[in-house]
Amino acid sequence: MDTDDRRRQRTRELGRELRRYFVEARLVTHAFADRHGLHATDLHALIEVMDAEGRGTPTTPGRLRETLGLSSGATTAVIDRLERLGQIRRVRTGSDRRRVYLHYDEGAMELAREFFGPLHERIYRVVGEFSEEEIAVAHRFLTAVTDAAADHRRAVVGDGRAVADHGRAVADHGRALGAADGDAGGAGFPGGAGLPDGAGSPDGAGSADDLRVTDDRPVTAT
């Protein structure tokens, strides 16, 4: 086996392990969503709001719309629903109060800490088994792989029609994989993009506007 073959083999092995992790992460987040009556799109939006705030750059409805691949009306419906559930809040800034930022509600944040805190501690203990140099390499690898997946996503869903077609295909694929959640070989990324040696699955539902907003079934952990 030459160097290229070995690297491809290692890539497939890493891909399987990453998918195995994301299967577990997906089931954990779906358990949280089920407990709090969130739909698949709600969960995706909530994660985006939470991550943006964690980076110190709260998102806006416009940026959330671009991330979710929804229309303005569909995005507003998601935001309204999350606000009614007490998960997020709109904050207006500027002299004309027209600029709106989305923030994770403090009460919702506390619920998330209570639910995900033990998981964080488990992972913290695992990280403690590695050196600073090993952690730096792992971080660089995960960042690069995520960027590659994001580049591919943008390439395949670059225009509006492609987004709708992709959403319908993803919904069908997601439903098919939903039945195989118990199989370690049959799942993928919560955020959507796959790795070599198997296609990924988005976290719950497709990205077509009608499909994502009118699907009233809560996310469940199976």
From TrEMBL:
Protein origin, superkingdom: Bacteria
InterPro entries assigned: HTH_MarR-typ (IPR000835), MarR/SlyA-like (IPR039422), WH-like_DNA-bd_sf (IPR036388), WH_DNA-bd_sf (IPR036390)
Residue ranges, compositional bias (Gly residues): 183-203
Family annotation (Gene3D superfamilies): Winged helix-like DNA-binding domain superfamily/Winged helix DNA-binding domain
Chain ranges of the HTH marR-type domain: 11-147
Annotated stretches, region: Disordered: 182-222
Compositionally biased intervals (Basic and acidic residues): 209-222
Family annotation (SUPFAM superfamilies): Winged helix' DNA-binding domain (SSF46785)
Protein's name in the database: HTH marR-type domain-containing protein
Organism: Cryptosporangium minutisporangium
Taxonomic lineage from the root: Bacteria, Bacillati, Actinomycetota, Actinomycetes, Cryptosporangiales
